[in-house]
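Thread: "does anyone have the structure for this chain?"

Original post by V.I.:
We have the sequence but no experimental structure in hand. Need at least a predicted one for the grant figures.
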Amino acid sequence: MKTLGVIGGLGPMATAYFLRRIVEMTDAQTDQEHLDAIVFNRPSIPDRTAYILDHAKPSPLVPIVEAAQKLEALGACCIAIPCITSHALYEDFSAAVRIPFLHALRETALHLRENGVKTAGILATTGTVRAGLFQYALAEQGIGCVLPDETNQQRVMQLIYDDCKAGRPVELDKFHAAASAVQKQGAECVILGCTELSLIKRDYPVGPGVLDTLDVLARAGILRCEKPLRPAYDTLITKE
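Reply from O.Q.:
Generated one for you, tokens below.
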């Protein structure tokens, strides 16, 4: 039986939701049919956006590498890190182990291409946007992208840091304003490109044409560990 390694805590509630989605999306009827997972919940890992925007800030790389090496030693067949911004360091931390890291952004771009999406809007941290992570992943699949303007990017960051990470009620009007703005610029699908934004989809209706990167990562982990996927999750773009 293959075991999924998870580096979590970035943030803690998003990791809990990631594990929930793995359970919900696996086509299992008994406990024993679900996948095994080893979870290191490490909220103490330094903030990824802060480091990307200012390399004088503490780096998250060393604790991510340490966790990955421990997961490898414990027998994980692959590793998922439900934190999109951390993928700015993907080449560095993936080189530190022999087992593969699942790449949430490449999996997302591939899912969009398989579903015929030509242009996607990106709602993500400023660190993710500045690093060009989704822009590069989408371009590899021939998909165009739309970014929020400065005002809506600030709204996205407020949703992530002031609401979701802080455990406060979500100001849903900010989410709808940012999503609507990229749709008006031609986005056929809106990417929830931060695992904190996934919590908004968990708790509120987000409307059609939204793809949650956390769902994509959960799906990839299930399939990589050779577990069956519930048919309802063959396509992850919201219908309503």
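V.I.: this helps a lot. The chain is about 45% helix and 10% strand.
O.Q.: and The radius of gyration is 17 Å.
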